[in-house]
């Protein structure tokens, strides 16, 4: 197991910069998630760690040792490829056994047999070991690809969307299995995903990557409660965070934000630090982020609430997403599945100013949050981690 | 309905039989006259006194086997050289991006475009000058024009079908590049390699123009040697037929052995499913 460091990594493909001055430190035994949209450079970053891609600039270090010139076979990394990369002419058994038969990591036949059957059992493919990859479904292929990594005891597991093609139930099972495996083997894992749920449920820390740059690195709480900019805020969280324009208004020494429509003022919490942060930012135009689960709604007419119409109502499993149209803006909120609602009916929405996240309207950078409890929780967590 | 199907089948089989006769008749005729004596050559068709005289004359009383092995040496080594040089070339064309890659690939293919008779005249002059005339090396060298393009184009397609991640996976599994190539890639390109090599061998074996012009006394392939049976007084068609029949054997045997794989190997990709 190893600590992985990436220092100033830059990788270009022709004129396209896939990785732009990336710095990361992945701790020993950490489950580290790379999370970002398609084409962000996640796979390239993984390939750089594996040695399959040579960065133009920067250093790759394993336990402090520079690995740039070490070829992939000697780095002792196990990798799960997004397109499986199974050997089509070998059976599932031989595919999984492949690393244990290689000259570098050679084991005797009895060990190989034991290991292959052990991981096949975990992955629920023990009945398929005699098949060829062409006789498998995509989900099964993906599990074989995971199996080929799990038979090893490498410096680091590199996983490129390893469970993206499994069905929902199996994905859930594999998620807990991977987490379990990681904690019981004390292994370092770098895990690439574009699925928010996977990222937060698996990652000790999450690195959000976009257009070849690391945008933010933090725990799931950090990226959720204190996203460093609007991009992170919209990426983390399902359904997506509501972003609305806001303007700082000072009236009789009291601070308000005006949102959604002219004259709709919301008083800022007096004793929270957010007022000072907003004033210090030197600007008056903001974007306010409201998580859909915090937005309240009612169908009874009520003064002081924003009036809108129901734009859509869509079930997402055990809950539903209600979208209200207010003026020309849309607000997403969480509603119970069995809610009786007609399209275009009136709805009254309350934005929870005490749980708002503020972003600079020009730069989209994070300014602060009025949810002090969230900050408090984060601080507590950092402290308890520091004590460990 | 049933009647219709029967007629259908009869027509199909009839056409196939017709084609079989069309395709096989020259071969049949060649074998037939190889058993005829010179005296009966022109005045008999199917009924004659079969004789092994021609076989005796060709196989025992001339240097036939020397020519035969000259052909074997030149063709086999030409194909081996093509495999050794062509497989890495095909890999490079499939995997790496470099300037003028497609131009280079096309140039290689275009070696097959020029009529041999056009190329062979300047080659004859050059070979005379640099001492390659009438040598094994000279013929093997010029045979690359025939064998190499075919091999490179077939194998390149195979490499392109293999996703680069398979190579990456094997490297991560702990294999060095050479081991990846031998243990993981070679089995995948084998069908293409075998069929392309055999086809290249047949082309090389059947070639006539190059050995006719670029060799003569020390090295003489079977295709050229067959002409020897045109004597100054008469053409020994029977003996020529023997020479041709025996020389056609390797190609026919190979083609029959790999018939199934030949079509699949040349048309299918490496990674199925």
UniProtKB/TrEMBL annotation, chain A:
Gene Ontology BP, a term: carbohydrate transport
A Gene Ontology term for the protein's cellular component: ATP-binding cassette (ABC) transporter complex, substrate-binding subunit-containing
Protein name, as recorded: Carbohydrate ABC transporter ATP-binding protein, CUT1 family
Domain of life: Bacteria
Keyword Transport belongs to the record: yes
Xref: Pfam families: ABC_tran
Location of the ABC transporter domain: 4-236
Organism: Thermoclostridium caenicola
GO molecular function: ABC-type transporter activity; ATP binding; ATP hydrolysis activity
Keyword annotations: ATP-binding, Cell membrane, Membrane, Nucleotide-binding, Translocase, Transport
Keyword Translocase in annotation: yes
TrEMBL record, chain B:
Membrane topology note: Multi-pass membrane protein
Domain of life: Bacteria
Protein name: Carbohydrate ABC transporter membrane protein 2, CUT1 family
Alphabetical list of Pfam families matching this protein: BPD_transp_1
Subcellular location: Cell membrane
A single GO BP: transmembrane transport
GO cellular component, one term: plasma membrane
Domain ABC transmembrane type-1, chain residue ranges per copy: 68-258
Family label: Belongs to the binding-protein-dependent transport system permease family.
Transmembrane stretches, start-end: 16-35, 72-94, 106-127, 139-159, 185-205, 237-258
InterPro entries associated with the record: BP-dep_ABC_trans_perm, MetI-like, MetI-like_sf
Keywords: Cell membrane, Membrane, Transmembrane, Transmembrane helix, Transport
Principal location listed in the UniProt entry: membrane
């Amino acid at each position: 197991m190893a600590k992985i460091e990436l220092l100033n990594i830059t990788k270009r493909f022709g004129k396209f910069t896939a990785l732009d001055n990336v710095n990361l430190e992945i701790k020993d035994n950490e489950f580290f998630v790379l999370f970002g949209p398609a084409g962000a450079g996640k796979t390239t970053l993984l390939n750089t760690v594996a040695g399959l891609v040579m960065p133009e600039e920067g250093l790759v270090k394993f336990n402090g040792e520079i690995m740039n010139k070490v070829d992939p076979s000697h780095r002792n990394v196990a990798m799960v490829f997004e397109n499986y990369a199974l050997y089509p002419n070998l059976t599932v058994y031989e595919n999984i056994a492949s690393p244990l038969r290689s000259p570098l990591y050679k084991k005797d036949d009895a060990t190989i047999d034991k290991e292959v059957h052990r991981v096949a059992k975990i992955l629920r493919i023990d009945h398929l070991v005699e098949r060829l990859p062409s006789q498998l479904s995509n989900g099964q292929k993906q599990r074989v690809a995971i199996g080929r990594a799990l038979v090893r005891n490498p410096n680091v597991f590199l996983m490129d969307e390893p469970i993206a093609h499994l069905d929902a139930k199996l994905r859930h099972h594999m998620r807990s299995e991977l987490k379990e495996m990681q904690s019981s083997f004390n292994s370092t894992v770098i895990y690439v995903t574009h699925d928010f749920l996977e990222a937060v449920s698996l990652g000790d820390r999450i690195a959000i990557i976009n257009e070849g740059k690391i945008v933010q690195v933090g725990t799931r709480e950090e990226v959720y409660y204190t996203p460093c900019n609007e991009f992170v805020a919209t990426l983390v969280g399902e359904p997506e965070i509501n972003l609305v324009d806001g303007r700082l208004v000072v009236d009789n020494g009291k601070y308000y934000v005006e949102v959604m429509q002219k004259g709709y003022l919301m008083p800022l919490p007096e004793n929270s630090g957010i007022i000072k942060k907003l004033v210090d930012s030197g600007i008056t135009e903001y974007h306010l982020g409201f998580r859909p689960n915090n937005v309240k709604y009612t169908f009874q007419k009520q003064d002081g609430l924003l009036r809108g119409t129901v734009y859509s109502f869509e079930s997402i499993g055990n809950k539903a997403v209600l979208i209200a149209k207010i003026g020309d803006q849309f607000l997403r909120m969480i509603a119970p599945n069995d809610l009786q609602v007609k399209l275009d009916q009136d709805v009254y929405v309350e934005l929870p100013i005490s749980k708002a996240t503020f972003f600079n309207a020009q730069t989209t950078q994070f300014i602060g949050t009025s949810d002090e409890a969230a900050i408090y929780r984060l601080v507590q967590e950092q402290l308890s981690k520091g004590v460990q | 309905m049933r009647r219709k199907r029967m007629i259908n089948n009869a027509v199909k089989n009839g056409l196939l039989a017709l084609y079989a006769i069309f395709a096989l008749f020259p071969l049949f005729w060649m074998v037939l006259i190889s058993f005829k004596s010179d005296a009966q050559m022109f005045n008999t068709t199917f009924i004659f006194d079969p004789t092994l005289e021609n076989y005796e004359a060709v196989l025992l009383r001339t240097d036939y086997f020397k020519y035969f092995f000259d052909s074997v040496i030149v063709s086999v080594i030409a194909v081996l050289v093509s495999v050794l040089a062509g497989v890495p070339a095909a890999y490079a064309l499939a995997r790496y991006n470099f300037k003028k890659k497609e131009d280079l690939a096309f140039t290689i293919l275009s070696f097959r475009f020029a009529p041999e008779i056009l190329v062979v005249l300047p080659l004859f002059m050059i070979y005379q000058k640099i001492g390659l005339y009438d040598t094994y090396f000279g013929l093997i060298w010029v045979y690359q024009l025939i064998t190499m393009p075919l091999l490179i184009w077939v194998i390149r397609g195979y490499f392109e079908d293999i996703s680069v991640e398979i190579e990456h996976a094997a490297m991560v599994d702990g294999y060095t590049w050479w081991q990846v190539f031998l243990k993981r890639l070679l089995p995948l390109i084998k069908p293409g390699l075998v069929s392309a090599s055999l086809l290249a061998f047949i082309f090389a074996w059947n070639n006539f123009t190059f050995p006719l012009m670029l060799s003569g006394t020390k090295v003489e392939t079977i295709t050229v040697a067959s002409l020897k049976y045109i004597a100054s007084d008469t053409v020994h068609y029977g003996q020529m037929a023997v020479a041709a029949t025996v020389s056609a054997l390797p190609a026919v045997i190979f083609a029959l052995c790999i018939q199934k794989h030949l079509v699949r190997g040349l048309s299918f990709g490496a990674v199925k499913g």
